[in-house]
What we know:
This protein is of the alpha+beta class and 438 residues long. The chain has ten helices and six strands, in the order αααββααβααββαααβ. It has two domains: 330 residues, Outer membrane efflux proteins (OEP) (Up-down Bundle); 72 residues, Outer membrane efflux proteins (OEP) (Single Sheet), CATH 2.20.200. A hairpin with a 2-residue loop joins β4 and β5. α4 packs antiparallel against α5 and α7 packs antiparallel against α8. The two termini are 34 Å apart.
Amino acid sequence: xxxxxxxxxxxGLAVAWPVYAANLSELLEMARAADVQFAAARxxxxxxxxxxxxxxxxxxxxxxxxxNARNNTSQGGTFxxxxxxDSGLFSINISQPLYRKANWETYQQGELQALLADQQAxxxxxxxxxxxxxxYFEVLQAQDALSAVQAxxxxxxxxxxxxxxxxxxxxxxxxxxxxxxxxxxxxLAQEIAxxxxxxxxxxTLEKIIDREVPPLALLSESASIDVLPESRLKxxxxxxxxGALQVAAGVTNERIARHEVARQVGAQMPTLDLVANISExxxxxxxxxxxxxxxxxxxxxxxxxxxxxxxxxxxxxxxxEALANLERASHELANSKRQARLDARQAALGVESGGALHRAxxxxxxxxxxxxxxxxxxxxxxVRSRVDVLNAQQQLYATKKDLAAxxxxxxxxxxxxxxxxxxxxxADLKALDALLKY
Length: 438
């Protein structure tokens, strides 16, 4: 088989073999496995779950074991000379809280802190979905912008060649050549900027997935972007104020702050414990009668009452501190609700106005195409200038770029609205996969 045959076979195989293109769901799985921000949030959630275990410990009995063994030397007393003897102690102390207000509030806090850790993990998960989709669409938008600039550059290159030929035969002035050259050079600069923008967007996505960005599935030109009907839009808006994950976390954080106030107040209250002690004390020289071993068992109630004297004066200060922190948590909760409503309104506006903008740009594209055709005919018959043709071409490609960008912005706004309402899931990205072409 000669080289030409091998080359033909390779080209045929490349054409027949499908090119792999990753979709949103696949990028999301890569991000789950590699994104350090998400990994840190998961680790924080695991740590937060331990607060529940730590909180329960204050309600359970505590057991301590103590033991010692000594060799003793003593002189004087009834006996003359030095005496050596061994002694030892072994004891078990058990304490079961019966009434400790502070411990009960700590337990309540631990349960809420574990809940807060779970809520924060869900927030991180939702944030990851939005970041992946945003970076994915930004790469596609940058690629579309580059394609539009390259098409515009090609059109200007053709105009520049025509202007030079016309100038050489005396049919057009040098100003046409200069104007076309300037437009062409500007497009070259725009192409460089567009390529740089693609690289920046790809690097952002690479940071999330920690690998080189694979070829991405493109948004189909025929895909419908009206993925949120009016009724669903209103439902998400109504839900945002209370259903947002950030709001739920704010409610939990405020409840934790309330229990902290109660815990600090409880620390100033009496405590009552059930205590038991079992001990064995062995003394090799306990008395003149010789070594002895004493075993003792004690069971009873232990009452304690802190007094606001000396270090006890710190207690009221801690109560005031907890009250101030509760007020802060309440304000933060109110801010979370307002921010959730604002985010939802902005996202809903992006969906609604984005849809209207998309439809307007579709009409503008049709008008720009018609304008370019009529301007080109006018130039051919001498009633329009080459600058008019350049302006019409530039307007056409700018409209194409804006139209492509509007589609991504609408889809991303829909995801952001669902995130603001706290209902964004993997299924939403899978639904967008159906709009992609491979």
